[in-house]
Specification:
GO terms for molecular function: ATP binding; UMP kinase activity. Keywords: ATP-binding, Cytoplasm, Kinase, Nucleotide-binding, Pyrimidine biosynthesis, Transferase. The protein has eight helices and nine strands. It has about 240 residues and is of the alpha/beta class. Helix 1 links the parallel strand 1 and strand 2. The two termini are about 25 Å apart.
């Protein structure tokens, strides 16, 4: 695909990357330097086309808070969620160094203060970094337990006035049912907020979705494993589902 066909249609973008995107072969274990580099190379090409890019990172490849809190009395859910937030900072550090190794300017901001390794999240500071053409990596979720990194992505996208929230997943969009369970599941190209709520479609958790709906923040759900998927998404050419 030519560079001309990948001309961005969005000025400021919030990209939500799950922890699995950093894992080995997309699996939820550890950090793969090869996978991280492939993502970083796409992000570099995106910002070179003039896009202001913020990235919210998950931590599921290292630790999921739910795995410690579900049905156990030894670790409280709040503690488990904080452990998950720390895992997102680890992914953020890996992405930051990888991006800088290929010549990108970055800033890693965390909602959980960790002054030795990253900046605290401050909205105006994050916006200033974007205006200075730095890739802003947002870790630590919202800094609060009991909410997901999807909620962090919706909040940050809303705070920073993003044109769209890109939700990178392992599937090609939103389906009428789980495509792995139902062979007759239908993929949607476009959806309204009302249709998502009416049919209880799984775009993101309800709290995150309601933030996007209230702010009229577009959501694009797409498969990050497809070739040049992130670049195509920002150019409006992704194979996915657009919610608006």
């Amino acid at each position: 695909m030519s560079d001309e066909s990948l001309t961005p249609i969005y000025r400021r973008v919030l990209l939500k990357l799950s922890g699995e995107a950093f894992g080995h072969g997309g699996k939820s274990t550890g950090i793969s330097l090869d996978e991280t580099l492939q993502i970083a190379q796409q992000l570099k090409r995106v910002v070179e086309r003039g896009v202001q890019l913020a990235v919210v990172v998950g931590g599921g490849n290292l630790l999921r808070g739910a795995q410690f809190s579900a049905g156990l009395d030894t670790i409280k859910q709040a503690t488990a969620d904080y452990m998950g937030m720390i895992a997102t900072v680890m992914n953020g550090l890996a992405l930051q160094d990888t991006l800088e190794s290929i010549g990108c300017q970055t800033r890693l901001l965390s909602a959980v203060p960790m002054d030795m390794v990253c900046e605290p999240y401050i909205r105006r500071r994050a916006e200033r970094h974007l205006e200075n053409h730095r890739i802003v990596i947002l870790a630590g979720g919202t800094g609060n337990p009991f909410v997901t990194t999807d909620t962090a992505a919706a909040l940050r996208g809303r705070e920073m006035g993003a044109d769209i929230l890109l939700k990178a997943t392992k599937v090609d969009g939103v389906y009428s049912a789980d495509p792995e369970q139902d062979p007759y599941a239908v993929r949607y190209d476009k959806l309204s907020y009302a249709k998502v709520l009416q049919d209880r479609l799984k775009v993101m958790d309800l709290g995150a979705f309601e933030h996007c709906q209230e702010a009229k923040l577009k959501i694009l759900v797409f498969n990050y494993k497809r070739e040049m998927a992130i670049e195509k998404a920002i150019a409006g050419k992704a194979h996915g589902t657009l919610v608006e």
